[in-house]
Design a protein that fits this description.
With 327 residues, this protein is mainly alpha-helical. It has two domains: 57 residues, no CATH class; 193 residues, no CATH class. Helices cover 56% and strands 0% of the residues. It is built from twelve helices and no strands. The two termini are 29 Å apart.
Length: 327
Amino acid sequence: MTSSRSSSPDTTASIDPMLLLAGRARARTFSDPDGPGSDDIDENDGFLTGPVGTISTVAPPLIFNMSQADFIARGRALKKQRTLSPRSEEDLEVFLHSPAGADHMLRVFLGLLESQDLLVSIAAGTAYTIPEDVKDSLLKYSQVYILSPKLLHYKRKTSATTVLAAMRYLGVSGIPPEHDVGRAEVVLKTITKALTDARHHIKEQISASLKADAAAADIGSVAYACVSGSKTKPTTGTFLRVAFLRWVMIHYPNSIKNFWDEVDRQLDGFRKQFKTPLERENALQEILDQDIKKYGSAVVDCPPIPADRVEDWVKTVDSYASNTVSL
């Protein structure tokens, strides 16, 4: 491995790094069929909801094939099989003595509504605690999401919702359904924190690699350090993305405190500057080549993992991270 960190003055310091990159990337020619390429993304991919059933607003009539006296006797007989409070026993007597089927229907429906309100009140007053196995899943999926080489934005407010949607689609155990809004909010807060922690870890590894006394600065070592502790495999795509993140940190040092905001701006600018997959491929490869020239190629024990070894669930999370658009 060779490294050529130079202290000579940079004559291009006054030129926008993105414009310099554009010039170099468009000058490239690719003749290596084994070079890194963009993964295929189905831009028409989507998830359709099923047909929604309808409920008739006309209540069917209640028809009792018994006399009022028989109805009362039957109701009292069934009551003996239940344990009711004194108030409920009184309510039952009123119900049994109601003369019309419509009145019975109204009383049943009002009772259901009252029960529903009580259940909602009880649920709201009970703090939801995420089970430990679900916490582990939230952490795992959040890390894979933020480490995706196809991620469009790192600080988008909808990121946590996207992670949760991917987990629901994959049928991850213990994830609250969409209608359980209260528990879902608790889960979203946990995902948001996991995403923040994952970004912090990546930033720390890249920042450490730029220090003069860095133990290892080659792209392989940095990529492996970034994915450490996660289920992400460091593929060529990971190497390209980590090289891009280090490129941003080097060329926009004044944004170090708001690093991820700058990264998102550069990602947007990158897609506007390089409009086709081939142009983006050339530009990313140019960044990686310059990174290797400065910090050395990947060491032997940190090679890129073949893409065919990536698990299917990780590919699904990647598709959610890319939002059908690949950088």
